[in-house]
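The data layer described in this paper is built around a simple, fixed record for each protein. We quote a single record here, exactly as it is kept in our systems:
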Amino acid sequence: MFDLDAFLRSLILRLRTTHAAYFPFFETLYNTGCRYDDLLFSRWTITVNSTLTLKPCKYNNIRTFNFHDVNPFFISYLLTGSSAFFPIPYSTLVRSFQFNAGAILKTEKNKNLLLHAFRHNYAKALKLSGLTDSQIQIQLGEKHLSSAMQYIYSNISI
């Protein structure tokens, strides 16, 4: 069986050396399961108790993260509104993902999976940690349980 988590962790380690400017973005995707748009274009709020609140671009629910889940360079971007790293065009990140992955990930419906692989992996990790499907739905910020279940139970392969 394909180990998506090991695949993504090794991809992130490669990115640290091959595309260091993109590393903070990919690490934050891995640790939060956010979508590209949510990460770069949503309304983030930083609270005094070391949490970040995200109001997603889509019609999904608000999500909350601990500071340690988000790369410090990305937090710097949120605080100042500017950084040498962000925003990175989606097409550039996809090319970096493909270059470093060395493989194309596919869903069971034979659909290519690129940056969204991080969201699938995050949902699966939450399930392995013992969260219920409903708790994962909330953590992903999904309005509908069926949407969250697609992430939790999808089969990813190379």
Notes: The chain has one domain: 4-153. The domain at 4-153 is CATH 1.10.443.10 (hpI Integrase; Chain A). The CA atoms of residues 59 and 143 lie 8 Å apart.
